[in-house]
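As a warm-up, study this chain.
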Amino acid sequence: MILDSHVHLPSANHAKESDGPFVSYFSDWRAAAEYSRRAGIGGMIFTTWEGVWSDTEEELDSANREALEIYETDPSFFYPGASIHPAFPETSLKWLKIFRERGLVWVGELVHYRAGRGDYDQPQWLRLFELCRDSGMIVQLHSSPGVIRLAKLLPELKIVNSHIEIPHLSALAECPNVLLDVSGFAGGLRFNSMEYARKELGVEHLLFGTDFTVYEPEAFLLRSRHAFPDPEEREKLYSGNLLRLLNAAGALNPFHGR
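Now compare it with the structure written out below.
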């Protein structure tokens, strides 16, 4: 089974899709999910675009409700990540509690570069990440130097760093609480990026991810087959590492329904 650890689905709030033309390619989340299935993806960890770009408490509430509604349509394929925002700590804490009580342990992908959010090691984020650590939740973060600083500040917080940034790999390799998902431009399109990540971190610390609906899933499948020719290593990349991570965090029966 191939699990995509990094997906953003179209949301009912189409106003949040104005951030880029790529997000309007699919009419809705159903069309996007069907495309992913046809490409060979057997399950996905996802947020919606409203979740990524939430700018108000109302949008944060709406995004989390919609993510749970999508998850309920097929728990064997969908696994939702909670959306949180440092400007709305009480609303964020509410949703972290709701997700955790339902056995859902993933948070994000979160982005730091939206106006006013600050990098991940800043006080406005730390309160939320300390709760994630204490609850045993997994936090997926857009690549930034702040990921490395956060990992050192909270060494018991399990972090998934999104995207291959070659200059950051050696520092990430020194953080045992960080895994890397190979999503984004470099991983799917540039020769030797996945290979370099494998050399620096080892296959046990890598997750398959695409950043769909921005990128074409089949590009990542093609690159990963070349970068990981050994079937046992591909199994770890495609599903084994992610399932072990989820199960260690106490996830409720991920990708197997109920």
